[in-house]
Amino acid sequence: MPNGLSPIADADDLCRLAAAELSAAYRAGSLSPVEVTLAALDRAEAINPLFNAFTMIDRKGAIEAAGASEKRWRAGEPLSAADGIPTTLKDIVWVEGWSVRYGSRTTTSAAYDKDAPAVALLRRAGAVFIGQTTTPEFGWKAITDSGLCGITRNPWNAQKTPGGSSGGAAVAAATGAGVFHLGTDGGGSIRIPASFTGIAGLKPTFGRVPAYPSSAFGTVAHIGPMARTALDLSVMAGAMSGRDISDWQQGVGTLAPLGRIEEVLRGARIGYWSKPPSGALDSGIAAVVSHALTCFDAFGATVEPIDLPGGDLLDLFQHHWFTGAAARLALVPPSERAGIDPGFLEIAQAGAAFDVHTLVAAQLERAEFGAAMDRLLDDYDFIVSPGTSVPAFDVGLEVPLGSGLSRWIEWAAFSYPINLSQQPACVIPCGMTEAGLPVGFQIIGARGDDARVLSAAADLEAAFVPMTHAFRQKDLV
């Protein structure tokens, strides 16, 4: 991509339109879902050799679905605001008629005969599935590469990682290969690639989006939307949210509907979390985010520095994540484990070494931390933070070169605590590093307040645009 330009700059105009613009055009008859889908498919095929975002592009299925959507719009009977919107699905959720490999050679290549609940909800809403996006093996890490699919690259700089585990989805969004992108987030896997690629991503309140089968990583694992804007996140989140009785962990009730995007920042009390519980905050990211905080002045909001409650959150998350890896590995026969990502084998081995007493103690400690976070978000309207503590780094590495860190979790420290506590958290771009890489800004709300988080994200997104634009213009001079 041209230096200083967005990765979508060379895309067809149809690939740059937001969901609301597409719906309005479908309603007016000035565009059809078929022509928009064809443009998205062409874009996916064009960017994939460069960045390896897709495991599969379903041209035939997408065109058929778009044709059915076109008939509904012509009859004035669309299924939802998501009807006819090009959508990608991560290689970690079941899709009827597709092979779902979880990024692993150990899985079957046979096609599935049913949709996961979130996929079924999107299909019911009329979303057009154009292809499947890449993930690291079993979604275990916050970068995207695997022995099965190879390395996924950042469209701002192909020598850098897009993050993960929803890295393929983030690249598809950033380049205009689709509008809606389904991601999963067990320790930052939506928010980290959103930060690294300059898009928007929402980890919803746990249980808002149904999941089946249950993740081996347990109740830190969320399913959520990724898109180019907070408004598109809102439309997609509405389409994929709901009750499904196959997801026992949702409970018997339902969360309040997402509701409309509205102004929520006027006079708000904001807690600024700037000290990660592991690793260190990069000085360049700190400067960009500090500058972004000045935007709250226009809303009359107050920003106060805060620290998160709890003790050793890194150790607490590792007890949950590593034991989840051990549980996932146990499903793979020993005779089929050759070629599995060595890093995944290492954390699975560490998880298997935890005794039952320490695991139960960690679960109890998590409950205390979650309750403390609920109390904190009873005092503050929102908590904000950097999206990540580091900018995108070289592909092929789990941690930045020379960082002294050993595992991805250590630099993902603005993400994993919120998986433990299950609040909604949205990342949007807020500026660029001196090297021309995106910087993400995270907005966290109380459990169930996804609509307020998305509303705050939409307002801040508009306020942050001049910051990012100023960098790009400077770079082009």
Structural features:
single chain, 477 residues, alpha/beta, eleven-stranded mixed beta sheet, two-stranded antiparallel ribbon, 13 strands, disordered C terminus
Give your account of this protein's structure:
- The protein has 477 residues and is of the alpha/beta class.
- The protein is built from 14 helices and 13 strands.
- The chain has helices at 19-28, 33-51, 59-74, 117-124, 167-175, 191-197, 230-240, 283-293, 313-330, 342-353, 356-379, 408-411, 416-421, 450-476, and strands at 54-57, 86-90, 128-133, 145-146, 150-151, 180-185, 200-203, 222-227, 269-273, 302-306, 382-386, 425-432, 438-444.
- It has an eleven-stranded mixed β-sheet, with helices on both faces. Strands 4-5 form a two-stranded antiparallel ribbon.
- α4 links the parallel β2 and β3.
- α2 (33-51) runs antiparallel to α3, α7 (230-240) packs antiparallel against α14 and α9 (313-330) crosses α10 (342-353).
- The longest helix is centred in the C-terminal third of the chain and has 27 residues, at 450-476.
- The protein is globular, with a radius of gyration of 21 Å.
